[in-house]
Amino acid sequence: MSFNTFGRVFRITTWGESHGPGIGVVIDGCPPGISLRAEEIQTALDKRKPGTSKFVTQRKEPDTVKILSGVFEDDRTDGPRTTGAPISLMIDNVDQRSKDYDAIRDKYRPGHADITYDAKYGFRDYRGGGRSSARETALRVAAGVVAEKALAHVLHGAPTIRAFMVQMGPHKIDRARFDWSEVNKNPFWCPDALAAQRWEHELEAARKAGSSMGAVIEVVASGVPAGLGAPVYAKLDADLASAMMSINAVKAVEIGAGMEAAALTGEENADEIRMKNDHPHFLSNKAGGVLGGISSGQDIVVRFAVKPTSSILSPRRTITRTGEETEIVTKGRHDPCVGIRGVPVGAAMMALVLADHALLHRAQCS
User: Fold this and answer.
1) Where are the alpha helices (H) located in the chain, listed in sequence order?
2) Using 50, 70 and 90 to split pLDDT, how confident is the model at 78?
């Protein structure tokens, strides 16, 4: 299976399967001399791990991360620091229940990658999806911590990356009630307290019915300098779109105004510019912080839509590997809204892209 590596200069390669003994990531291209502790990575992983509320899968994985290589500590350093060598991180799988999938091993789950994996490789790991499982995203979150540190190191200051849920099912937040302090107070990473209350009732009903709901996640990077990206084949927004689309269950990505830009006039869509404190100041941000594939210095704003989890208890029509028509019910421990755990993953992918582009920019325009 090819294409398990992401990035050009700051590169990650993930390995492992959902029901294997463990999963891991190798990070290549991280600059030396950066302070890095496993505890810092663990803090981010704890936001994504399963079993944190009744609204995510109840698989009990502590997601304890181990740093196997790429850091060194002695009496000349104030803690472990990166050496410039590949950084290898590993997480053990401790709560697999492969027997949950025995009854459907020869059936294709609608909405899953079962049928396409069989078409491409001729066989598949039916235990939770193998490499197609969202379990792999734990490694992205771990690597994202290293990416944020590398980004701060290269830019001599850390941009702020925030991610939150702005829609569940058909229900959107009210931007007038946006309060960042609310994000860590509810299980949905929602900045609108009233919307979070409504979502709780809606998702609880879906969960009890054995169904699922989709979501929209927004990721905002503030403090990114102008100049990252390239105008043709390494557009910053193109790489961000690719990064977000690579997350499991994501079906759409938009930058800035996104699809709504098609309904605007040229006058409405143009982000007018003035001077403020001797620096360019944009009066709006329809472009989402990227112009011509290059960062403008404004907030970089990305949203992505996550489809409803396909593993549901309602019988769905499908076929077997041998072409027989049948029905399937997917039991086991699944997220009623996979978008919830997609929030920290989106933030990590933003960090990975920005770190890669910061290093590319330094190489060409140092």
Assistant:
1) 38-48, 114-121, 137-155, 193-208, 236-245, 266-269, 339-365
2) confident
